[in-house]
């Protein structure tokens, strides 16, 4: 600590009534997320195997969108839970990390960029997943059949996402002054504020909350809006105005895939929404609630992997046969039919 911070720590900070709870400390985000990742990683690897090796012919068009979505979800979870676990002090937008990268000496700003890029990739993979479903409906007038159109579309989305990096322009260059200003706005942070190499993204609490209140809803609405549009088109052309040229069997399969994809998206999203709710519904700021929000967000990986493995019937059967040794009734029927044909041929 510098002399100014030493003076503040020995005088003003000693008067603070601080929480000594495990959850408020850096261990409250580091240890739970590490444990979560221990359970999440085998499920993620299993989901990769099931998608690549067990996707049936009728899911051919879904195989790679599901793979890319699971890939970017896994990258985000791995970064959040293992490599760049964040400890965020929200009122002053102060942040440091307690993951593997921090012990390797990688700058915090680089880690924040990695976390942001992984989050944007995750959001884009969900848009791609729903856009692919929408494109599979042949009568959809809004589908992008041409590859060039899809490249332009996703390029524009990526370009719009880059505006989130505006936070780089508000980071104070004089961090010592920024830290002292931040302490004026929030005088009693946890002791980690003084013992870890914290980065103040913005020392003005009013500006910080304004940025969060503006950019977070815009980002969420922008990402969700694209997905809602593609889902709405799919629902309209499957349920409201179905084509007479498409067989009922094909329409039934498309409806099933759509419901499964929506459910697959909904299950892990619950953890993210619950995490945001924990952080922003508290009447007063609490570091325990902030850290708990990060821990709950870390459960996204388990929820997403379980959704992939058990939402889609072919993947559910393959997972059951691999782990629980379930018997495939369809396989038994095929074997019985084959035996019957063999007996008839012998006769």
From TrEMBL:
What InterPro entries does this protein's entry cite? Answer: 7TM_GPCR_serpentine_rcpt_Srh, Nematode_rcpt-like_serp_H
Per the UniProt record, which residue ranges are transmembrane? 35-54, 66-90, 102-130, 151-171, 209-240, 261-280
Which keywords has UniProt assigned to this entry?
Answer: Membrane, Receptor, Transmembrane, Transmembrane helix
Per the UniProt record, one Pfam family is 7TM_GPCR_Srh
What name does UniProt use for this protein?
Serpentine Receptor, class H
Source organism per UniProt:
Caenorhabditis elegans
